[in-house]
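Notes from the 1:1 (GR / supervisor)

We went over the backlog. Supervisor wanted to see one worked example end to end before approving the batch request, so GR pasted a single chain during the call. The sequence is below; no edits were made to it. Supervisor asked that the structure be written out right there so they could see what the output format looks like.
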Amino acid sequence: MKKEPIILAADPADPEDFNVTPEALDRGQRARLIRKTRSGLGLSQAEFARRFRVPVGTLRDWEQARATAPDFAVAYVRVIAQYPDIVARAAAS
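Structure output shown during the call:
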């Protein structure tokens, strides 16, 4: 089994800490972008999912970094952050 590179090593003084791989760091950064965008718009997960037509379970998985949001989803969220009303109107039609 191939060992993954470590970007951030676990703190040996913290028994609950863990090593962070490049994939985990990327997943966490994507999760943060999505969460901050949604919360910055003042929307709950259910409201954001409904308004922008994203399955709420998928949104939760992305925000909690249980799944990595694909590149197209990150791009979509960036457009939502810039133009939320336009995107909401386009998604509703």
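Supervisor's comment: DSSP finds five helices and no strands in the chain.
Batch request approved.
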